[in-house]
Structure formats: structure tokens, C-alpha cells
Write a structure and sequence with these properties.
2 domains; 30% helix; alpha+beta; Creatine Amidinohydrolase; Hypothetical upf0131 protein ytfp; 26% strand; 3-stranded antiparallel beta sheet; 4-stranded antiparallel beta sheet
């Protein structure tokens, strides 16, 4: 698996204050001067008592895109960890939304800008449209026969990125590893594994995270390459389990992330499989939402998430979820994966 790129955070406001850094990150950040072209600054009144106490300031600067290309916002760029990025999310109030920008120096950095007040119907429609495009990409990959015995995972990945760019205009993917074959199908997201050659009797799964415009998609499918009936049964059961877990979600408006994870385990066992994922899904939204899903455990379908999944986000908007089904054979020799939006009809 490729190493993740460094994480940069650009601040034009109170995150540059030493006392705010200590309270938020537990350390002083070492940064360098930079600027964000194409944006302008205004001010927002802060009412959150914790932020007021930490910053000592009632009015904070806030930025939004400018129609004047000569406009730019000066500030400081810091290199931080992913955990510190989540801490910054917790510090910022609901008037701000995190996005990526290309700084004057050429660095691509996270920054907090004025939150977009897009209508809920439009947000959901955009996510569904992105998912439909992602499934069309999967269909195109199948038509191109990218999965075949004798090909390595990395060879398949290169074809995926080439077809995504050439035929679908995709230039960003919010996660790196997209192909797992054979014993690597036992791995969870983010777990390193050596490049593997697809064998005649493997299961192969594709886990795609293309970004279409401003919106993330996250879809996964599995393929049984040979004739093994148990592997074909597992691949077929992925969508069966997905539908059963979706029904559990639809029937319980108070279900928590931990509750839905337990439901995924139960439905997997009901079909004769183990549930192989450490999580069973996560939040998804306007890019780059999924890369750091708001509070980590609170943004995942996991045993650690005791929050109700239907609770709104800090902007008062509905949260949208990806449901992941990772099934593993009882003897632990192979697995399969399927994921898509979790929707309530």
C-alpha cells in the first residue's frame, strides 16, 4: 500500500495562537508563512463558550471564495497528524467547513472556510449521482476485463486509475488501496499487504473511492474468478447481507453505530460467514468528508460508536452513511467485500 501523503493544515485565524494550539493539539505547531489565492476574509461572531474561552476572541475571521482573482488570504501552513486534524474539526464551530485548497506555495492543504448551506435534497441527490457514476465505472472495468488470472493487484489498480481518468474525468480518489485478491481479501481498509498476483481460483474485490466534482463516492464489489462454489456463494451473499443490515437500519430510527455493527455481525453469521471488518461503514459527503469522518468513532459504524446514526451533524444537517459488508470464510482462507450508500426507502 502506498504511503499516505503528508497532512497540511492552513490557518488564517485563531489556530495560529499558541494557547489555542496547546488546548487543541497539546503542543505548539511549527509552521511557515503562506497564502490562499482566490479567497477573501470576513468575520463571524462566536457563541460557543468553549471556543470563546480557548481563543479569548468573540469575532473570528472566516473566508469564502472571491470573484476577484487578485484576492488572497495570508496565513500559516502546518504539517499535522490525522488525529490532530480530527482535533481541529472538534475546535471549529458549525459556521466553518473543511476543504482542500492549493496554496500560493503549491502545497495542497486543509483549510476551514465558510460552511455551504446547501439544501438537504440537493446534497443527497449529489451523493446518489456520484454513486451512480462510481457503479458505472465498475461496469466499465468489468467490460474491460481488468480482473484476470496472472495479473497483479497493482497492474489492475493502474488500469482502474487510467480508465477512471480517461473515461470518467476522475482526478481524485479519497483512499489509496483499491484491489485485494486471494488471501489479501482478508485485509481491512488501511492494512498493508504485499502486491499479489490473481490466481485461477481467487476472489478479487475492488474498493473504489472516486471523487466526482465536489462529491465522494465509495463503492465495492467482489468477483469469484474460478468455479469454487463456496466462493461464488460468498460473493452472492454480500448483497444479501447488505440488504438485511439495511433493513435493520430502516426499522430502528434510534440505532447507533455500535448497534448496526452488531447487526452486521449477526447477519453474516446467519449466512454462515464471519464478519471481517473492524468497521461496517462510515460517513460520506462533500469531498473531503470521508477522509476524516467527524470525530473518528462518531463517524464510523463500529463497536465504539454509541451515537445514534440518524442524529444530525453539527450544522444541523442529515448525515449520510456508507454501509460496508466484509464477509470471511469460517476457516479464514478467503473473504469478500461490498459497499454502497445506506439509504432508507
Amino acid at each position: 500500500m502506498a504511503d499516505l501523503e503528508p497532512i497540511y493544515l492552513f490557518s488564517y485565524g485563531t489556530l495560529r495562537q499558541p494557547e489555542v494550539q496547546i488546548a487543541t493539539f497539546g503542543r505548539y505547531l511549527d509552521g511557515s508563512d503562506d497564502a490562499m489565492p482566490g479567497y477573501r476574509t470576513s468575520w463571524v461572531e462566536i457563541t460557543d463558550p468553549d471556543v470563546l474561552a480557548t481563543s479569548g476572541e468573540r469575532f473570528h475571521p472566516i473566508v469564502e471564495a472571491s470573484a476577484d482573482p487578485a484576492d488572497k488570504v495570508a496565513g500559516t501552513v502546518f504539517q499535522i497528524s490525522e488525529e490532530e486534524l480530527w482535533a481541529a474539526d472538534s475546535y471549529e464551530v458549525s459556521d466553518y467547513a473543511r476543504t482542500t485548497v492549493r496554496l500560493q506555495s503549491g502545497i495542497s492543504a486543509w483549510v476551514y472556510v465558510k460552511a455551504d448551506e446547501q439544501a438537504e435534497g440537493d446534497r443527497l441527490a449529489a451523493l446518489i449521482a456520484a454513486e451512480q457514476r462510481a457503479f458505472a465505472l465498475l461496469d466499465a472495468l468489468e467490460a474491460a476485463n481488468v480482473i484476470a488470472p496472472g495479473r497483479t493487484e497493482l497492474e489492475i489498480e493502474r488500469d482502474i486509475f487510467a480508465i477512471a481518468s480517461r473515461d470518467f474525468g476522475v482526478t481524485s480518489h479519497w483512499h489509496d488501496r483499491v484491489v485485494r485478491a486471494g488471501v489479501n481479501t482478508l485485509c481491512v481498509a488501511g492494512e498493508a499487504a504485499p502486491d499479489r498476483t490473481v490466481m485461477d481460483d481467487d476472489i478479487v474485490f475492488l474498493d473504489l473511492g472516486p471523487v466526482f466534482g465536489d462529491w465522494e463516492a465509495d463503492v465495492g464489489r467482489s468477483y469469484a474468478v474460478g468455479d469454487n462454489p463456496e466462493k461464488h456463494r460468498l460473493v452472492a451473499d454480500l448483497e444479501v447481507v447488505f440488504d438485511a443490515v439495511s433493513q435493520r437500519f430502516a426499522s430502528d430510527p434510534d440505532i447507533t453505530g455500535a448497534g448496526l455493527y452488531a447487526a452486521a455481525q449477526e447477519e453474516a453469521e446467519r449466512r454462515g460467514w464471519h464478519f471481517g471488518g473492524k468497521i461496517a461503514g462510515h460517513l460520506v459527503g462533500k469531498f473531503p468528508y470521508a477522509r476524516s469522518p467527524a470525530g473518528k468513532d462518531g463517524g464510523r459504524v463500529s463497536p465504539a460508536n454509541d451515537q445514534r446514526m440518524r442524529d444530525p451533524d453539527r450544522h444541523g444537517q442529515a448525515r449520510h452513511w456508507i454501509l460496508e459488508v466484509h464477509l470471511v470464510a469460517q476457516d479464514g482462507t478467503f473473504g469478500g467485500f461490498y459497499e454502497r450508500l445506506l439509504l432508507v426507502a
